[in-house]
């Protein structure tokens, strides 16, 4: 009985060490790939919790970065929508929020398209280039949408909590999308 218990404990120790080494490899992979991102620390932070999914797979890394970007954009859309329901908004704030809702909605749509388009990528070089080009275009457009939303709050007339809250969210989404685009571009470059 003692031998069985010792053998079981030894086996569990080996499995734990192997799992740690595997996850450490995935974490190193993420850090390595994120070093080329626009915001490397944010890239690592936003993707590290998915290391067991990403493993050491470049395509899975890109898919996860897109999914994280989409999640951030959806959260921001919900946040902006809630702000539009506040009473006491200035007419210019309400207009800026309405425009921002539209822009963030476009971002969500484009990121959704990108996630779906990446799933269509197959082995042929021509097919890969077509689909990845679409992904790059839509993700770039998504970043533009976010910047357009932020531009709607330009000027001192809109200074205040609404402006700072929205801008903070938009900066976060834009940075996560920028990182995803960097990873997509690097992935495309390495597959060419």
What does this protein structure show overall?
There is one protein chain. This protein has 192 residues and is mostly helical. The chain has one domain (2-191): Butyryl-CoA Dehydrogenase, subunit A, domain 3 (Up-down Bundle). It is built from 7 helices and no strands. Helix 4 (58-84) packs antiparallel against helix 5 and helix 6 (125-151) packs antiparallel against helix 7. The radius of gyration is 21 Å and the shape is elongated. Residues 8-23 have low confidence and may be disordered. Residues 25-183 form the Pectinesterase inhibitor domain. Belongs to the PMEI family. This is Pectinesterase inhibitor domain-containing protein. Residues 1-21 form the signal peptide.
Task: Give a topology summary.
Elements: H1 2-34, H2 40-47, H3 51-54, H4 58-84, H5 91-119, H6 125-151, H7 161-191
Helix pairs in contact: 1-2, 2-7, 4-5, 4-7, 5-6, 6-7
Keywords: Signal
GO molecular function: enzyme inhibitor activity; pectinesterase inhibitor activity
Family: Belongs to the PMEI family.
Relevant terms:
single chain, 192 residues, mainly alpha, Butyryl-CoA Dehydrogenase, subunit A, domain 3, 7 helices
């Amino acid at each position: 009985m003692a031998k069985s218990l010792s053998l079981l404990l030894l086996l569990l120790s080996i499995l734990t060490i192997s799992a740690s080494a595997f996850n450490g490899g995935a974490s190193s992979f993420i850090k390595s790939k994120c070093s080329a991102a626009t915001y490397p620390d944010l890239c690592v932070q936003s993707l590290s919790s998915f290391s067991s999914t990403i493993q050491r797979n470049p395509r899975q890394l890109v898919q996860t970065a897109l999914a994280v970007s989409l999640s951030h954009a959806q959260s921001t859309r919900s946040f902006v929508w809630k702000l539009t329901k506040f009473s006491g908004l200035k007419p210019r704030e309400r207009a800026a929020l309405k425009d921002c809702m539209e822009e963030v909605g476009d971002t969500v749509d484009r990121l959704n398209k990108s996630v779906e388009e990446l799933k269509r990528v197959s082995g042929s070089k021509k097919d890969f280039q077509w689909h990845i080009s679409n992904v790059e275009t839509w993700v770039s457009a998504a970043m533009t949408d976010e910047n357009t939303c932020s531009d709607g709050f330009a000027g001192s007339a809109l200074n205040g909590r609404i402006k700072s809250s929205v801008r903070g969210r938009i900066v976060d989404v834009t940075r996560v999308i920028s990182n995803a685009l960097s990873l997509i571009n690097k992935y495309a470059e390495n597959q060419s």
